[in-house]
Design goal:
The complex is a heterodimer of chains A (about 140) and B (about 200).
Chain A lengths: L2 E5 L2 E5 L3 E3 L2 E5 H8 L2 E3 L2 E4 L2 E3 L6 H4 E2 L6 E3 H7 L4 E4 L4 E4 L3 H4 L12 E4 L4 E3 L8 E6 L3
Parallel strand pairs in A: 1-11
Antiparallel strand pairs in A: 1-2, 3-4, 4-9, 5-6, 6-7, 8-9, 10-11, 12-13
Chain B lengths: L1 E5 L4 H11 L5 E4 L3 H6 L6 E5 L5 E6 L4 E3 L6 E3 L1 H13 L9 H6 L6 H18 L3 H14 L4 H10 L2 H5 L3 H5 L20
Parallel strand pairs in B: 1-2
Antiparallel strand pairs in B: 3-4, 5-6
The chains are: A alpha+beta (about 140), B alpha+beta (about 200).
Chain lengths: ~140, ~200
């Protein structure tokens, strides 16, 4: 079945996804493309960050061998306390931020950085205004 | 000044207002409500003062500095708040309007696992809406609302993308009566100007 995976900023259509019950399984190759997570000796890694393989969950996280190895992305999400949501009708899965990203938010007074575009498509980051006072206004037309 | 439109309709939703403001400062568009998530805000407006070192010195003020009436085109200015901002610009950390560590903390909502899960539902809803499946987005928005009833951004944005009565079986007034959804706005603790 095809699954459309929203993983932080990335949207990927994965034609060869599988489900068991409510869980989503991807091949390791698809996992890397859709989420940038890879299995390494150190554990499950994304760039510099590695999550050690939780031995007690290993059998529910990984199945198969070699080229036919499948990874349970939803079980992993639960392990890293990452919220996720699924729309069955459209085969869309949306994954949120893992624990280490949201748990430390707003623990200090440092204003979180962000980058967004204006109407012209020009991108701005809060960080580029360091050295100036900033009045940040969140608003909506609704 | 930096404005961030928490607007899942993107440029289409925010454009009219941004053009009318005709400002010199960056007016940014935030379809996924990333900034609201990062700053833990639950409603708009939400204003933050950030000093030269990148620290929040006032957090989550539920005010518009200027407000434009859609029908009349008239702009009203919140003079008291604007004077507070001017005071800060002039005096920096000496301004009476600057909040200390405890006050900033009191005005922030550090995220919980419910927030993290609610955001996944909300983002899924926004994606489905943007793909042309507005009706299918409703179920996911409802999940976000149930998880975080105090998050008025999720409610008001979702209602704006659909029909509040038909899709959500409620009205704004009814929704405001739910005790689990309160407060609608955080407190604005603005000191009285010192007599001078």
């Amino acid at each position: 079945m095809t699954a459309t995976i929203l993983y932080q900023e990335k949207v990927t259509a994965v034609p060869r996804a599988a489900m068991t019950g409510e869980d989503l399984w991807l091949t390791l190759a698809d996992l890397a493309v859709a989420t940038e997570w890879e299995m390494k000796p150190e554990g499950i890694c994304r760039g510099e960050l590695c999550v050690p393989m939780p031995e007690e969950r290993a059998h529910s996280l990984v199945r198969g061998q070699g080229a036919d190895t499948w990874f349970n992305l939803t079980e992993f999400a639960r392990h890293i306390e990452q919220g996720y949501a699924h729309d069955a009708a459209h085969g869309v899965w949306c994954f949120g931020d893992p624990a280490w990203e949201w748990k430390s938010r707003l623990a200090t007074r440092m204003a979180p950085d962000f980058t967004l575009a204006d109407l012209q498509g020009d991108r701005f980051s809060l960080a580029q205004f360091r050295g100036k006072k900033v009045l940040l206004a969140l608003w909506a037309s609704w | 000044m930096i404005t961030v439109a928490c607007e899942s309709k993107g440029a289409a939703g925010a454009e009219e207002w941004i053009r009318k403001a005709n400002s010199q400062y960056p007016s940014l568009i935030d379809e996924r409500h990333q900034v609201a998530e990062l700053y833990g805000t639950r409603n708009v407006p939400a204003l933050f003062w950030i000093d030269e070192a990148g620290r929040m010195v006032r957090a989550n003020d539920p005010v518009y500095v200027t407000r434009r009436n859609r029908e009349t085109g008239e702009t009203t200015v919140n003079e008291r708040y604007l004077n507070a901002v001017r005071d800060w610009v002039a005096k920096g950390p000496q301004s009476i309007y600057v909040q200390d560590d405890k006050a900033v903390k009191d005005h922030l909502n550090p995220p919980t696992s419910e927030d993290a899960q609610a955001m996944a539902f909300f983002r899924l809803g926004v994606y489905l809406y943007q793909q042309g499946h507005a009706k299918d987005a409703v179920a996911h928005f409802k999940q976000a609302h149930q998880l975080k009833p105090q998050n008025w951004n999720y409610k008001r944005q979702a209602w704006n993308l659909g029909n509040i009565e038909q899709d959500y079986g409620t009205t704004f007034q009814q929704a405001q009566q739910d005790p689990a959804s309160l407060p609608f706005y955080p407190r604005l603790d603005l000191p009285e100007p010192s007599p001078s």
